[in-house]
Design brief:
- 84% of the residues lie in helices and 0% in strands.
- It is an all-alpha fold.
- The protein has a single domain (2-195), classed as MetI-like fold, CATH 1.10.3720.10.
- Helix 1 (2-28) packs across helix 2 (30-43) and helix 6 (104-142) packs parallel to helix 7 (146-156).
Length: 201
């Protein structure tokens, strides 16, 4: 399982940087939006797992292939949510930035990114789940280590207890990762969580 988590962490980290950068810039630069929007829309309905045979042709089997598939799968929800968050900035905030004569980069850093942060974290949470799914799936299809490879090996040898143990382990890890992410979100975006909390009676 450790090998799967390492691959997942590598792919998720790269997807986070790429997704936030591309999504925010698409929302703030019209030319970039016009160039990339058709590709993003074409990318959305394609199952990520379908890229594995193509990537194997160029990257071969092993860690690079697994990481690349995770990046392809996880970047898409980050782009969409970063774009949505950066695009939904209220005109009042942007007018305030103009009043204080903030530069484009200062506006991005001081207003756009903080305002878009809650929606960006939604995208990261979705990307985290997709990263785990693809890390396990790629290991089952073309891996030589990790929990996916473990489950396939157990299936080939008809070792039913090991199959269920592998599936149960993935479920527990997924639950734990989601719980850690929620705690992290509450810590860094406590102001947003507090504003959206349900009133008590």
């Amino acid at each position: 399982m450790l090998d799967t988590l390492i691959l997942m962490a590598c792919g998720f980290s790269i997807a986070t940087v790429l997704g936030i950068t591309i999504g925010v810039l698409m929302a703030r630069v019209k030319t970039l939006f016009g160039l990339l929007e058709p590709f993003v829309e074409l990318w959305r309905p394609i199952p990520s797992i379908i890229f594995i045979p193509v990537i194997i042709l160029y990257a071969g089997l092993g860690r690079p292939m697994n990481v690349l598939v995770i990046v392809i799968a996880a970047t898409e929800p980050v782009i969409l949510n970063a774009f949505g968050g950066a695009r939904s900035i209220t005109p009042v905030l942007l007018n305030t930035a103009a009043t204080f004569r903030l530069t484009w980069w200062q506006t991005l850093r001081e207003i756009v990114l903080p305002s878009a942060a809650p929606q960006i974290l939604v995208g990261l949470r979705l990307a985290l789940a997709k990263s785990l799914v693809i890390a396990v799936g790629s290991g089952m299809i073309a891996g030589d280590s990790g929990i996916g490879f473990y489950v396939v090996t157990a299936q080939q040898t008809l070792d039913i207890p090991k199959m269920f143990a592998g599936a149960f382990t993935v479920a527990l890890v997924g639950y734990a990762l989601n719980a850690v992410f929620v705690l992290t979100e509450r810590r860094f975006l406590h102001w947003h969580v507090g504003n959206n909390a349900q009133p008590t009676t």
